[in-house]
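Predict the 3D structure for this chain.
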Amino acid sequence: MRAIDIMTPNPVTLDARQRIGHAIEIMQEHDIRHAPVLRDGALIGMLSDRDLRALWRPGSDLGGGGRTYDRVVEDFMSTDPYAIDAEAELDDVIDHFLDTRFGAFPVKDADGALVGILSVIDVLKAASGRL
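Done. Predicted structure below.
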């Protein structure tokens, strides 16, 4: 089994210059915890619920004067994301999850185009009933 066989194709993406408040609304609307971040069509980061935890940390002053939600996605995202090759074998994908402890990876094709997102949940769904 390969990454392309179990990934979620055509993932919801965010623009690096989007306001974080709007990005949160998009993630909630689509019930997702991870989103690839693009700038001019190129993958430059990932935004996850983990990246957003600081917004709700008691005593945090991320925005100064209540302007937090006017800040942009690139202020919160994880940069330089590792992308899984669409043809990667499931064993290799699982090793990446175990090594990094990430919850999801963007998936790219041989030309480097973003074609999907692969989460731990996708892997568990693929394994369900097979073990």
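DSSP finds five helices and eight strands in the chain.
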